[in-house]
Amino acid sequence: MIGLGLIGGSVLRAAKAAGRTVWGATASKEDADKARAEGFDITSVDEALGRDPEALVVLAVPLPALPDLLRKIPAGTRLTDVTSVKGPVHDAVHRYAKEVRFVGGHPMAGTSQSGWDAGSATLFQNAAWVVTPEEADDHLNDVMELALDLGAHVVPTTPEEHDEAVARISHLPHVMAAILAATGADGGPLAMALAAGSFGDGTRVAGSRPELVRAMCEGNRDALLMAVDDALGRLGAARGSLASTGGLAKTIEAGHEGRNTLVNQPQRTKITIDLTKPGALAALRNLGSRGGRVVGLNGSTATAETS
Ligand SMILES: O=C(O)C(=O)C[C@]1(C(=O)O)C=C[C@@H](O)C=C1
């Protein structure tokens, strides 16, 4: 495990709790000391990377730190990551660490806290864990098994589809939360004294560490621009109808429908996917694109739920 912040620290704790042999490294001396004090085996980055050529290496560092780290990864290493954007990570791996075996990963879990202290062994329970495989092979199976062991279900897709989806459901919400929090705070002390559930829920993630949110959103610039344009169109339409007719029916009803789509997810049907078959990669990506997920792995047979 390289990087012991909220996500890295949670992967390390959860993997240990699942009975795996784990060790970690971090550039933060403070996080390293805390992890050691809790009994974890923490080494330098070079030692962690060199200890076992067969180990699955998980990178949990912010996007801007990846190029320098990738240059150090030995050829043949079995690698995954937990970064919240996938296209730029795949590009960086192809550029700086051509000889590694890589499956991109992204657990859809977090809190507005950061650092080792914020991590938890249960963070990934029932979470979606995206994988962006380029082949269906034993390395993909190992990465999926890690996610399943940690309590998550696996959503396979492509880097492009992942980045477009998370721009809408993660990165845009962070931008909106920032705008909402700043707009509310500009209302002055009375507005802050009256702020209740809607303001609190809508601005929760604005409490996250700004540099981490910036790295996440700016790392997905192109897809986020499209999502921002979509939201601006809706905000413009809401403003227009409020100004001209005083009504907000379309905006509110579309929002209500969107929320219902999240809450009332369709019934899922169980299927199996033989991961040794030639079309396995396409079958997995197709599953994820349609909102399905892998929920179990037995040898090279994946149990999946389609929606
Ligand atoms: O719950 C939160 O606090 C989060 O911000 C988690 C959240 C998100 O839902 O946007 C943020 C980034 C991660 O990459 C995945 C999930």
From TrEMBL:
One molecular function GO term is:
prephenate dehydrogenase (NAD+) activity
* PROSITE patterns, A to Z: PDH_ADH
Q: Where is the Prephenate/arogenate dehydrogenase domain?
A: 1-273
Q: Which InterPro entries match?
A: 6-PGluconate_DH-like_C_sf, NAD(P)-bd_dom_sf, PDH_C, PDH_N, Preph/Arog_dehydrog, Prephen_DH
Question: Has keyword Oxidoreductase?
Answer: yes
The question of whether Cytoplasm is a record keyword is answered with no
Q: Which UniProt keywords apply?
A: Oxidoreductase
According to its UniProt record, what is one Pfam family this protein matches? PDH_C
Q: Name one GO biological process term.
A: tyrosine biosynthetic process
Which top-level group of life is the source organism from? Bacteria
* Family as reported in the entry's similarity comment: Belongs to the prephenate/arogenate dehydrogenase family.
**Which PANTHER family does this entry report, sorted A to Z?**
PREPHENATE DEHYDROGENASE, PREPHENATE DEHYDROGENASE [NADP(+)]
Protein name from the UniProt record: Prephenate dehydrogenase
